[in-house]
């Protein structure tokens, strides 16, 4: 007891030190405290950005763009829900959590409620197997059920679940798994987009959206490069770099210098100008083939 | 001092050191814990009525630190970028730039607002640069806090 008492001043000191450092960092502190797997680069103008992050458009957004461009729903292009039991490695589970998330977004955007429930269950199962708690709970299923027919609410529930997944993985120092989930979602959205474009008579709008993905593919590759030592990431990068080769030849049409205008009546700010991209039919077919190949690799892992 | 007393003193010191080391080993976790829940609690509600892109970009930052995020935006959608920091850091500055470095929005010229709503005429990549202002306090304890960038979209009406 006497010995324990003698430790109390040390305990007080240690706890004070911890709370002090948790709230404040000394100016001499160095190190990488990134939560999201950022890195450091020198930006234009020679300035160094200490944390550089890459954001990938969500499958919800990509599926919305494809649907607005005139695509027609086809359940056959989605990943078979029966495959969910085959994914046993964290690589397969993370990539296919992204894939099923994209399929969940597609079914919701095309108002396929029954199928949405199935894809939600697939996402939940893989999230559970990856040890992600709380993102897809009974409450999520209940909320989806209560909001049947309200597409905006359903999309918010799905984006909340994927936000929680991303937050959980980054807070628990698993940003590499988070990057794989994002990659799976992006690739599935591209694959579904190309497949629906092929089956649509008037597909120019969908092909334009696929061409618009050039920049986000570069972001995705930069993000995955941070985790290239992780199992399977190099192989995935190989597929994506092959896709980049095709996108490299996509024509970039220089536009006006970017400008900002705010409409006084609607108060909407528009960033005008900037370059545009256009894709030939042949390039679309090559993208489509490459997307099919990488997607097949993912769903059969 | 006899041999027993010397042994006891050594043991006490080694126990004290172990206890200190165990406690300090929790330090990195507590540093990360600063961002825990912050984004969802303080950032996500500011995105309403936009749908989040499902990604959390957050980092522990100190005065003078900067960060950069590269994002893709598509024509036909409305977007909101929210940049939020813990109050201890003061008003976090952010600029939206095109890929050539031209500044399109600077929050310090708009009353330090923590969001930017816009749409793009052509689909394009943009950069968001975040800067935590220099510390103006008069002691040596430099604050450290969480900064997050979140993005949402909605279909153009």
Could you explain how this protein is built, in words?
The complex is a heterodimer of chains A (301) and B (157). Chain A is mainly α and 301 residues long. Chain A has one domain. Helix content of chain A is 59%, strand content 9%. Chain A has eleven helices and seven strands. In chain A, the strands form three sheets. Chain A has a two-stranded antiparallel ribbon with strand order 2-3. Chain A has a two-stranded antiparallel ribbon with strand order 4-7. A two-stranded antiparallel ribbon of chain A has the order 5-6. In chain A, strand 2 and strand 3 form a beta hairpin. The radius of gyration of chain A is 23 Å and the shape is globular. Chain A starts with a helix and ends with a helix. In chain A, 47% of the residues are buried. Residues 13-37 and 40-47 of chain A have low confidence and may be disordered. Chain B has 157 residues and is α+β, with helices and mostly antiparallel strands. Chain B has a single domain (36-153), classed as Jelly Rolls. Helix content of chain B is 23%, strand content 39%. Chain B has helices spanning 3-25, 27-33, 38-43, and strands spanning 51-52, 57-61, 66-73, 77-85, 93-98, 103-106, 115-120, 124-131, 141-143, 145-155. Chain B starts with a helix and ends with a strand. Residues 23-32 of chain B have low confidence and may be disordered. Chains A and B meet through helix 1, strand 1, strand 3, helix 2 and helix 6 of A and helix 1, helix 2, strand 1, strand 2 and strand 3 of B.
């Amino acid at each position: 007891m006497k010995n324990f008492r003698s430790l109390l001043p040390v305990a007080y000191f240690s706890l004070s030190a911890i709370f002090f450092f948790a709230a404040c960092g000394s100016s001499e502190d160095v190190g990488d405290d990134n939560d999201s797997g950022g890195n450091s680069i020198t930006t234009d103008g020679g300035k160094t950005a200490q944390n550089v992050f890459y954001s990938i458009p969500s499958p919800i957004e990509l599926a919305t763009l494809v649907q607005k461009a005139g695509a027609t729903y086809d359940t056959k292009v989605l990943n078979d829900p029966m495959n969910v039991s085959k994914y046993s490695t964290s690589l397969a589970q993370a990539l296919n959590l992204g894939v099923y998330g994209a399929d969940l977004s597609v079914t919701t955007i095309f108002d396929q409620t029954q199928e949405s429930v199935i894809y939600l269950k697939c996402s939940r199962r893989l999230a559970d197997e990856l040890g992600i708690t709380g993102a897809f709970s009974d409450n999520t299923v209940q909320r989806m059920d209560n909001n049947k027919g309200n597409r905006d609410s359903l999309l918010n529930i799905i984006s909340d679940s994927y936000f929680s997944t991303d937050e959980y993985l980054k807070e628990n120092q698993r940003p590499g798994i988070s990057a794989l989930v994002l990659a799976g979602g992006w690739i599935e959205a591209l694959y579904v987009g190309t497949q629906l474009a092929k089956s649509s008579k008037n597909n120019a709008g969908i092909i334009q959206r696929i061409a618009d993905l050039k920049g986000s593919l570069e972001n995705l590759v930069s993000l995955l490069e941070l985790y290239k030592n992780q199992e399977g990431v190099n192989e995935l990068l190989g597929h994506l770099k092959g896709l980049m080769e095709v996108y490299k030849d996509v024509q970039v049409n220089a536009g006006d210098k970017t400008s900002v205008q705010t409409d006084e009546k609607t108060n909407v700010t528009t960033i005008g100008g900037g370059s545009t991209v256009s894709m030939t039919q042949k390039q679309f077919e090559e993208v489509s083939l490459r997307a099919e190949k990488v997607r097949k690799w993912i769903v059969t892992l | 001092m006899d041999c027993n007393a010397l042994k006891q003193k050594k043991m006490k010191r080694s126990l004290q050191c172990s206890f200190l080391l165990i406690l300090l080993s929790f330090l990195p976790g507590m540093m990360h814990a600063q961002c825990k829940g912050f984004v969802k609690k303080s950032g996500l509600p500011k995105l309403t009525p936009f749908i989040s892109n499902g990604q959390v970009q957050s980092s522990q930052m100190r005065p003078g630190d900067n960060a950069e995020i590269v994002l893709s935006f598509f024509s036909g959608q409305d977007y909101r970028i929210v940049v939020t920091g813990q109050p201890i850091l003061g008003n976090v500055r952010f600029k939206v730039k095109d890929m050539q470095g031209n500044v399109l929005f600077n929050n310090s010229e708009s009353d330090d607002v923590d969001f930017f709503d816009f749409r793009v005429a052509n689909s394009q990549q943009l950069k968001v640069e975040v800067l935590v202002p220099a510390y103006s306090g008069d002691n040596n304890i430099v604050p450290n806090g969480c900064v997050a960038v979140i993005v949402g979209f909605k279909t153009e009406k």
